[in-house]
Specification:
about 160 residues; alpha+beta
């Protein structure tokens, strides 16, 4: 894949199903970190790092009074916090860093099996399906006119 030349595209993570799901999940989030008139400082990067550890997906709002361009601020925040930039939408950034223990969006990397054990494949049963509840139909009530069941009535017209 050729590297993007646009500064907007250069800092974004590669597109794919993960980025699509991150953008969808981040749509409803509120901004947890705000960059103000001081710009991207060490305190803002530390706060972003803690927010990423707590939430894994964080929206950041860049204030209009920030001395840095939104793309420069996005790149500095992503590199400073060790995160990936999923989206830049106006002055709002969406940053992602996989949780080390309980990731929500990516599976944990699989551990390699021990070399001492021989590779045996055992056939496992599929999980049992829960018993489906069948809804019983109530008995047909007699018609109020004829006293017969509705299916036995004839239409007269």
């Amino acid at each position: 894949m050729p590297t993007p030349t646009s500064p907007k595209k250069r800092s974004l993570m590669p597109s794919g199903p993960l980025r699509r799901s991150l953008r969808a999940a981040g749509h409803h989030l509120g901004a947890l970190v705000q960059v103000g008139k001081e710009g991207v400082t060490g305190a803002v990067v530390r706060q972003l790092g803690q927010a990423l550890l707590d939430h894994e997906l964080v929206k950041v709002k860049i204030g209009t009074e920030s001395p840095e361009d939104r793309f420069e601020a996005a790149e500095r925040l992503a590199t400073g916090a060790g995160a990936q930039l999923a989206q830049i939408l106006g002055r709002t950034l969406l940053l992602y860093r996989r949780h080390p223990e309980k990731p929500r969006f990516e599976p944990l990397p699989r551990a390699e099996p021990a070399a001492a054990k021989p590779a045996q494949r055992t056939r496992q049963r599929p999980p049992a399906k829960p018993a489906q509840r069948t809804r019983q139909r109530p008995p047909a009530r007699p018609s109020h006119r004829t006293g017969q069941r509705p299916s036995a009535r004839r239409r007269t017209r």
